Amino acid sequence: MAEFEETRFFQVKTEKENKTREIILKVYQALKEKGHNPVSQIAGYLLSGDPTYITSHANARSLVRKVERDEILEELIRVYVEQYE
Amino acid sequence: MAKLVIQGRNRLKGSVRIGGSKNSSVAIIPAVLLGDGQSTLENVPAIRDVQVFAQILQDLGALVSLNENTMTISPNGFSSHVAPYDLVRKLRASYYLMGVLLAKFGRAEVGLPGGCDIGPRPIDQHLKGFRALGAEVSVEGGVVRLGARKLEGAPIYLDIPSVGATINIMLAACMAEGTTLIENAAKEPHVVDLANCLNSMGARIHGAGTDIIRVKGVKALKSTCHSVIPDNIEAATYMMAAVATGGDVEVHGVITKHLEPVIAKLREAGAETEENGDYVRVIGPERPDPVNVKTLPYPGFPTDAQQPLTAMLSRARGVSVIQESVFENRFGYISELVKMGANIKVQGKTAVVEGTSRLVGSPVRATDLRAGASLMVAGLSAEGTTEVYGLEIIERGYESVVDKLTALGADVQRVEDG
Question: Is the pLDDT reported for residue B328 higher than 80?
Answer without folding.
Answer: no
